[in-house]
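Continuing the batch. This is chain 6 of the set; chains 1 through 5 are on the previous pages. Same settings as before, nothing changed between runs. Recording input and output for traceability.
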Amino acid sequence: MEPTRSGKVRDVYDLGDRLLLVASDRISAFDWILEPAIPDKGRVLTQLSNFWFSRLPTPNHLLETDIERMDLPAGLNRVALAGRAVVVKKCEVVPFECVVRGYLVGSGWKDYLATGEVCGIAMPPGLSCAARLERPLFTPATKAETGHDQNVSFAAMASALGTEVAQELARRSIEIYEQGRDFAATRGIIIADTKLEWGWHDGQLILIDEVLTPDSSRFWPADQYRVGSNPPSYDKQFVRDYLETTSWDKNSPPPKLPTEIVQQTRLKYIEAAERLTGKPFAWR
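Output for chain 6:
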């Protein structure tokens, strides 16, 4: 089978009234797909997302997570798909990333330094890097299969989708972030921010794609968190930080990742999944 669509990480296969979603081991940074891939990364993303989908009290796209119970065309390599494939509902995808920021870091911190705002939202003066925000911020962005998502105002999102829908997306996205943040805190992990995707199915907004993973969220070890500095992370920020130490200009093809960086990234993803789920990572 050829994928109907290939994103930065996931390949989508059309099964008629359903979709087969397969998470690859690809990793991207600064709008480039990097080489080599991170072994088992797709399985971590899939299994951690499945964990959250089962915990969060909001409708989602999952139909089947067990490869042996999937009604798939003959000849597919089930061993290769195991642990990284799910069958999901077909949805009309909402064309915005729903970003929730609980801490002042990343592009939000850069924006604050330059303007005193985060994505157009006025912030109190004198905040430090990595400061916990009094209330999480909802800062939508356009979706991009290639290239970088672009931050947009809530007003622009409301103009495109309608005020009522935009408000519902903001409210539900913040609720999911807070639920995930509070649970992760019991496992010694801070979720600094996250991005969520939603889709329409039978007239209802449901959660789709992935949720609260090291690719879609910023995970920090709570015992290493200090206001004023960017803590070490369990997510792909580790790879970004490595790339910043090289001479790469971010416009030409990126350098290959050293074996040590690949191995450490893999272990970080697995550790995050194991700490959050409380279970050993499953390779199948």
